[in-house]
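Reading a protein record of the kind used here takes only a little practice. The record below shows the convention in full.

——
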Amino acid sequence: MKPRHKKLVIIASAVTALGVASILVLNAFQSNLVFFFSPSQVVAKEAPIGKSFRIGGLVAEGSVQRDDRSTTVRFAVTDTAQTIPVVYTGILPDLFKEGKGVVAQGKISANGIFEADEVLAKHDENYMPPEAAEALEQAAKAQKASLVQ
């Protein structure tokens, strides 16, 4: 084989390997990508049905119901404009309380209940996940705008 052909084979192999590696990395990234939605966005049907995403806001006052026979907990997440019911089976974080910030990851079922796989609570008295804080702020602005009209 001529030196010129060897170079072309090496370059073609390198380009092919780089292309395959890029496809694998992008596929792994896309399958692990999880989007955040507020309860208002979920009610507006902006959230994907059947795909995992995160929902955040405040745990609605008086909404926490614990099952005595299992670790299943039912509660509601609100952004003060809309409220979404959530079901979670597992041990909740110690900082999980009514009226406090929460982010839950899971899927929305056909009947509109968010089935959480993971629940994250705020870290301390001054912390709220940025996505949840932004969602609450937007809901408050929308609520004020509707009152003005």
